[in-house]
Each structure stands twice: as structure tokens, then as C-alpha cells.
User: Fold this.
Amino acid sequence: MKGWIYRYRAGFFRMFLVTVLISKYLSGKSLLIREWVVLCAILWMCVLFRVWCAGFLDDACDPTEHGRRLITSGPYSYVRNPLYFATFVMGMVYVIMSGIVYAMLVWIIYFVVLYDRIVVQYEEEFLETRFGDEYREYRKSVPRYLPLRLGRWKGGAGQFRLKEGVRNEISTFVETAGLSFGFLLA
Assistant:
């Protein structure tokens, strides 16, 4: 079950966003252009951050694949799950764009249940099985989402590749562009 949820996690996120967009449309709430511009700027910073994070990954890091090496450099030297942190921030921005206050609570619960309790735990179980003590030491030294500790992990495995980052996040570019305008027009 966890593997299935892991595999379709992006689809669940998109379903949530479409639900929020439809709710915004039905509520009739409008968004000022200056608010929309600021919120879009935050969204696009998150997209660029995701490209940076994804640029350190390759197909071999996917728990549904083989996971040949543990990535511990770049953003992964500060937090273990920077992509999910960006997903959380993007979800919050879309909820703010909707103007529907209760949706913020729904998003937080949704994120905690889907990502924190299922997806991340599935990944961590895989990584611990695959990398053993190397991953346990990394997990002990690097926080999950927020860089609350000073300094960074000294391991440094992995190298940034812009092409890989863009390739991995092309759907994020498309959905961010579409949803940004969708929230403006709804």
C-alpha cells in the first residue's frame, strides 16, 4: 500500500490542487493582482529550488528502482527531504491564493498524513534497508525538512546536473504555470 501511495504521490498532490482551485472558483473569492504576483514569485522560487534539488538526483535514487547511492550533497546536506519541503510551501501558497481559510488546515493535515507519515517513511525504510549504517548516520545528523541545525552534512555524495533537474521538474513547470493563471482567473 505504501509503495502504491509513494508511486502516485504527485497525482494526489495535483488532485488536492484541482480541488482547491474548483473550491476557489465556486466561492467567488477574488485575488488582487499584486497579491497574485507576490504569491507567484514565491511559487517560482519553489520551482527553482525543486530544480536545484532534483538536479542532484538520478533514476538510480528512486526507491522504486535500485538506489545505487545515497545523495547527501547540495540541499540534501542541509535537510533530508528538500523536495517535500518545497511541495509543502507550494501547497500553502496555492491555499493562500484560494482565499479559503479552512483549506490551510486541510493542507497541513493532508501533507502530514500523505507525505510525512506514508511517503517519507516508505523512503526512509527503503534507504535504511539499502544503505544501512550510512543512512542511519545521515538521518541522525541531518533534519527531515527544516535546517534547524547549524552547519551541513560533511558527506557530500552527489553532483548537481541542471539538465537532470529540469528534466525531473518539467511537470512542475507546466502545472505551476497553469495553476498560477487558473487561480488568477477563477
